[in-house]
Amino acid sequence: MAATDDPLQRTRDLLDRDASLRHGFLDTLGESVASETPTLAQRAMNSPLVATIYERLWRPVAFYVGSGITTGAEQRRAAEALRLSCATRLLDIACGPGNFTGKLAEQLPPGGLAVGLDISVPMLTRAVHDNSGPRTCYVRGDAGVLPFDDETFDAVCCFGALYLMPKPIQVAREMVRVLRPGGRIAILTSHASHIPPVRYATKASAGAIGIRMFDRQVFVDLFAEAGLVDIDQQIQRHLQFVTAGKAE
């Protein structure tokens, strides 16, 4: 295979810093560790056992209960919202074991590249094993300081992870930064009910294990303030799906 067709080399060319090859993915962090004490939910995401069962059992069940949307329907909705048939480069942030990265890569046109980024070594190792292909590459990196230049990707997404991150607003701003003009962005994250008893109960229970519940306007306002257009929000039970585009 020519070097220019190798997804590892193509991805390495997009990085703004050095990366070592580790278990089949590119590692920009090395032995770096987070300075903040991880929550219970964050520790789970770094477990080899969770990496094995997450997309096969845990996530499909939890997200169906939380939204009423199946994984297949979620993937189809994501591909449509991101307009992947017209995209060249996709960045999937907090990709976990790569189930979405691999499926979304199949929707890209010939020559497309889907990059899955995560901080968890077990998750990325699983992604390389289960969801690699000629259009995919995985990178270990910090979503709060993405290792890419401005306007690198035609589509950027983060599904089911912002509520676990210590600085989710910073991550969302980084997503906007690396998005090209004319590109599309999509997130799936938690939604705090406007009904006071439900709101307080879900925030308390979620907070106990380190999951944030976001108010309805948080990401809609953030995208609008960043100058994004065509903002759309869908609320399903305890989850919200927000999409937007960057003006050309």
From TrEMBL:
The keyword DNA-binding does not apply. Transmembrane segments: none annotated. GO terms for molecular function: methyltransferase activity. Residues 91-187 form the Methyltransferase type domain. Keywords: Methyltransferase, Transferase. The keyword Methyltransferase applies. It holds the Pfam family Methyltransf_11. It comes from the Bacteria. GO terms for biological process: methylation. InterPro entries: Methyltransf_11 (IPR013216), SAM-dependent_MTases_sf (IPR029063). This is Methyltransferase domain-containing protein. It comes from Mycobacterium paraterrae.
